[in-house]
Task: inverse folding
């Protein structure tokens, strides 16, 4: 409970600081560092900063096996391998349904003659009977 | 509030220097994969996950998928406060072309379509020309807890951390639309963000609300979250906030609002995010011929936050058991707690009420009287009379899980 009380006190202190800042006319929500030119230009506001981030690359890859090349060349176009590797074990027809959904709903360019091979591979790495 | 914009930027810099550490400099970065610090094991098959700190503006998060990012909030965060810190707030993107730079000088929010006049707002306009509104509201992924579905279903295999509660600040959508003037026969309002698919043929992620809902005065366009700008991965600079509704409608990096004179027939409204039109979207696995409708209102849930499975309690000693609960699409009425697997229930004490869409803390004192295993349960009721089911609801998409939560503990 003490931890909770401390947390709530912290919240109220922060809130008071925020309110005080408001009263002083400080733009309190400006937590982003402005790496834009100072001042206002072209509709930019003083409290909004350019936000620039870098998203980490994935280090997940498909395990080796017959058909891994299809998975790597097709699935990874739109999403990292983690999406596949964290799935529960699916039956081959369930994997096939996922592949069909990727092709028809999301436009994945998986050639039709590779669908069976990919379903086979996915069932081998993460499938059940 | 608005007055502050007229101050010299010097004041702001001094303030930022003064409080230290508020600048984003130290938070950005993550130039490369920095490996894992720890891992977590969710209690379902294939539930091992890495805990990573490599995503910008984020602390330790459970990695569900790197690209496009799916990051889950580690559950212990929910024990630390009713509001989920921005740097621990879960992340869910559908499409991998996510701008990694947002320039507020050029950013515009466009309101167009079936309106009297199209308008383009700068971020400044939103702050300066509208009365700010604030609401505490839970944002929960439709598929939160999907990993617990039995039988299992495909999709993001979340445990219970694809949710968060924040104090959202921004502009009422009703006020925004009033500037453009919604035409009398408008049907729906469609929301689009800056993200796009890698392939041109992938349907752009857009979501729509009925016009009456969009004009209800609660739906808002948020420019701040817990008093700070939104992290980029949570939708900087603007995000739609749809209190009481699943997060799929809370469009991130919102830059386009289009009023429609017909019902939206796009992929994300008519083919994805559909649920059986049954109570709690519940069907029997394999059930066919069920009418499907777009997912919509949230249902009540409650969780333990300071007790895990296999926790030990001392006989005769009082311990505070606590957690969080929310009512879904309306306020929380009460939370019941059981120390005997649901045979007897007692009402939990509720913490401060931050509004009907917010998390609320609950607490009970547990004093075991005899040794042995015990099953603790918690069940939320909302003010509309809805409560959590004793048996888990199920559907093929893994949406809307809200079964009564239980933990197995030992009294020693």
Result:
């Amino acid at each position: 409970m003490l931890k909770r009380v401390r947390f709530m006190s912290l919240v109220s202190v922060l809130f008071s600081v925020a309110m005080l800042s408001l009263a002083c006319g400080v733009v309190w929500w400006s937590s982003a560092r402005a790496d834009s030119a100072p001042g206002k230009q072209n509709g930019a506001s003083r409290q909004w900063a350019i936000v620039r981030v870098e998203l980490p690359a994935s280090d997940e890859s498909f395990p080796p096996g017959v058909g891994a090349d299809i998975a790597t060349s097709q699935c990874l176009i739109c999403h990292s391998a983690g999406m596949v590797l964290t799935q529960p074990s699916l039956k081959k027809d369930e994997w096939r349904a996922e592949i069909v959904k990727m092709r028809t709903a999301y436009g994945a360019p998986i050639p039709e003659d590779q669908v069976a091979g990919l379903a086979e591979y996915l069932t081998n790495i993460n499938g059940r009977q | 509030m608005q007055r502050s914009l007229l101050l010299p930027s010097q004041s702001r810099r001094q303030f930022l220097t003064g409080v230290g550490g508020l600048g984003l400099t130290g938070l950005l970065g993550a130039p490369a994969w920095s490996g894992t610090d720890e891992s977590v094991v969710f209690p379902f098959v294939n539930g091992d996950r890495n805990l990573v700190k490599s995503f910008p503006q984020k602390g330790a998060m459970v990695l569900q998928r790197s690209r496009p990012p799916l990051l889950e909030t580690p559950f212990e965060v929910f024990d630390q406060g009713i509001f989920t810190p921005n740097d621990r707030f879960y992340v869910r993107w559908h499409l991998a072309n996510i701008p990694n730079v947002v320039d507020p000088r050029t950013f515009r929010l466009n309101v167009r379509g079936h309106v009297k006049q199209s308008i383009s707002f700068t971020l400044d306009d939103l702050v300066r020309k509208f009365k700010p509104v604030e609401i505490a509201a839970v944002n929960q992924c439709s598929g939160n807890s999907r990993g617990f579905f039995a039988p299992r279903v495909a999709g993001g295999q979340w445990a219970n951390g694809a949710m968060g509660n924040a104090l959202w600040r921004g502009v009422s959508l009703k006020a925004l639309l009033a500037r453009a003037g919604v035409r009398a026969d408008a049907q729906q309002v469609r929301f689009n963000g800056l993200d796009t698919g890698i392939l041109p043929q992938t349907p752009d992620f857009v979501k729509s609300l009925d016009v009456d809902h969009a004009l209800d005065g609660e739906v808002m366009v948020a420019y701040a979250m817990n008093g700070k700008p939104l992290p980029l991965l949570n939708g900087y600079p603007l995000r739609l906030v749809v209190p009481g509704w699943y997060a799929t409608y809370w469009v991130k990096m919102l830059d386009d609002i289009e009023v429609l004179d017909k019902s939206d027939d796009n992929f994300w409204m008519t083919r994805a995010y559909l649920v059986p039109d049954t109570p709690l979207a519940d069907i029997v696995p394999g059930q066919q011929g069920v009418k499907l409708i777009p997912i919509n209102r949230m249902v009540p849930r409650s969780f333990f936050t300071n007790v895990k499975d296999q926790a030990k309690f001392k006989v005769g000693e009082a311990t505070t058991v606590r957690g969080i609960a929310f009512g879904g699409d309306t306020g929380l009425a009460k939370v019941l707690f059981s120390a005997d697997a649901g045979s007897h229930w007692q009402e939990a004490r509720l913490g401060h009420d931050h509004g009907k869409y917010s998390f609320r803390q609950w607490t009970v004192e547990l004093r075991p009287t005899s040794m042995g295993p015990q099953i603790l349960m918690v069940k939320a009721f909302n003010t509309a009379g809805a409560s959590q089911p004793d048996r888990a609801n199920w559907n093929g998409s893994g949406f809307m899980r809200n079964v009564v939560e239980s933990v197995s503990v030992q009294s020693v």
In short: The CA atoms of residues 55 and 105 of chain A lie 26 Å apart.
